[in-house]
């Protein structure tokens, strides 16, 4: 029987055809699934790049030169690869959290706020116990970040589960609350008091304990241990979703809440757990941004994106691009991180406005989301065709 590993956009099993199904239909079905699995998203990226080429041409820039600069800026050297990998770290962590939430059929749009709260809780932990030895303090601040983000995600989860509050609205509102909390704490209680007392004081903490700094893997390029944390957590989330009872329950609730409830599963608890775990991954991403930063302190410009660099939203795209599979999200995050890093080099090389880079990223998002919708419709069409063929053969 034709089958595909659960949750994976990977290769197709070449098993035998179902009884009563024509060989021609099986071949078409296999090729259709292969196209959906391997070529859908590359074609989406190609389409986005073609639209971007038209935009570049309209601005008087050479698309070939622009895209060459993009690729060289993202992947053309050890430093470029390092910057791309570091850019991908928060995308991976947020993305695997999105995989958890979306697999349970709850929409977490609050990763920006969860990253901020996770960073704040991790920062408070480092400020509270700066003298703890490094082998203990690093895990402490990372776990604190995950706990902070998890609690921030669990609140809209509980509102959704027990009061039927729309999780899209509540998570977006919690983003705003988190930003204002960050602005207050960094401007007053947690501000670096060693700065001169002027009206231009920067809203940032003091230099955090060196014992909390993430280990540097390569001093020449600045690659730090956040890369390892991201990959390990992506693997852990994959195991959670497809190799544990909890993961089965979350996915079952996502497929059908009524059937899950009929089977004795606690749908409300699953919704809360899904958003809590999703928030924990985002909170961990926020902690990694703080303790893997060059300044080794938490700083803001007054907005969420000033700290998160929009990783909370870009992580959603990375998760969708990876087919909501945590392992493929690693790959998609690296690609999307390269697009973000290479976009800066492209801007310098062909002298296009920065707004074009934002527009190009938006085009990629539109194509990725659209192709995911197309994939779902194509799967339904293939499933209907297979059912009709089985009925005709019977």
The gist of it:
The chain is 72% helix and 1% strand.
Structure description:
The structure is a single chain. It is globular and about 80 Å long. α12 (311-321) crosses α13. A two-stranded antiparallel sheet has the order 1-2. With 394 residues, the chain is mainly alpha-helical. It has two domains: 1-61 and 352-394, no CATH class; 82-350, ABC transporter involved in vitamin B12 uptake, BtuC, CATH 1.10.3470. It has 14 helices and two strands, in the order ααααααββαααααααα.
- Structurally, how many domains make up the residues? 2
Helix percentage: over 70%
Number of strands: 2
The major sheet is characterized as: 2 strands, antiparallel
Radius of gyration, whole Å: 23 Å
Neighbour order of strands in the largest sheet? 1-2
Mean pLDDT, to the nearest integer, reads: 88
Instruction: Give start-end ranges of low-pLDDT stretches.
Output: 1-21
CATH classification, class level of the largest domain: Mainly Alpha
CATH architecture of the largest domain: Orthogonal Bundle
Q: How would you describe the shape?
A: globular
- Separation of the first and last Cα atoms: 16 Å
**According to CATH, what is the topology of the largest domain?**
ABC transporter involved in vitamin B12 uptake, BtuC
